[in-house]
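Data deposition worksheet. Section B asks for the primary sequence of the deposited chain exactly as it was used as input, without tags or linkers unless they were present during the calculation. Section C holds the resulting structure in token form. Section D is free text for depositor observations; keep each observation to a single sentence. Incomplete worksheets are returned to the depositor.
Section A, Depositor: J.P.
Section B:
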Amino acid sequence: MSKPGAYPAAKASEPREAPLYERMKAQIKQRIDSGEWPVHHRVPSENELVDLMGVSKMTANRALRELANEGIIVRVQGSGSYVAPKKRSARFMGVRNIADEIAERGAQHTAEVILKQTETCGYELADSLGLDVGNPAFHSVIVHHEDEAPIQIEDRFVNPAVAPDYLDQNFQHVTPNAYLTAIAPISRTEQFVEAVVAQPWEARLLSISRTEPCLLIRRRTWSSDQVVTSVRLLYPGARYRLESSS
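Section C:
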């Protein structure tokens, strides 16, 4: 007798129109598409899938791994796999406030401040901010969450001459983007996007595996003739995409 909610067991004698891991993926997608498994629903683990479907752990692992790569589920280290919300998107051109983007999608934004401190400019940072080597710069690292999912790491350096009170702000209530654009309206933007793999500390903050591809935006903004900020924005690739239209 099969267990309640169990998958049909695979039999070696049955004809196969597709590899078993593809059939597993299709069954999981069907449960998600039908609404049986809503957003944030916990998906059975590899071991549970092995028990339910009578497959190898390697097959279950491949099915879950590919579903995560396709953005169908989210795998959270130490917790499990969950049905993912539809992939978030943002326009690449322009500078948007992450809190506004999340609110427009009907979700809740929260921010986790990892670091706020003053640092001394080396050659690369000084060049990026238009400062002299040895000058101070402000540094913040913030993880932005959409509902409960970490969606962006904001690793930002700020020119103290433009925003002397930057480190005094409560970034759980106002984002650095909102604060900086209010005191120093943007006159010029430079940004680049690339595909990267997260560093170990970044993967931990985003609750992703170290092999998951990510989107990285490197951005500098100016107000009048002064560089205001240089920032790295890292997004988990399975949960986010960038759009551009004209």
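Section D:
Residues 20-33 form the longest helix (14 residues).
Confidence is low (pLDDT under 50) at residues 6-15, 89-93.
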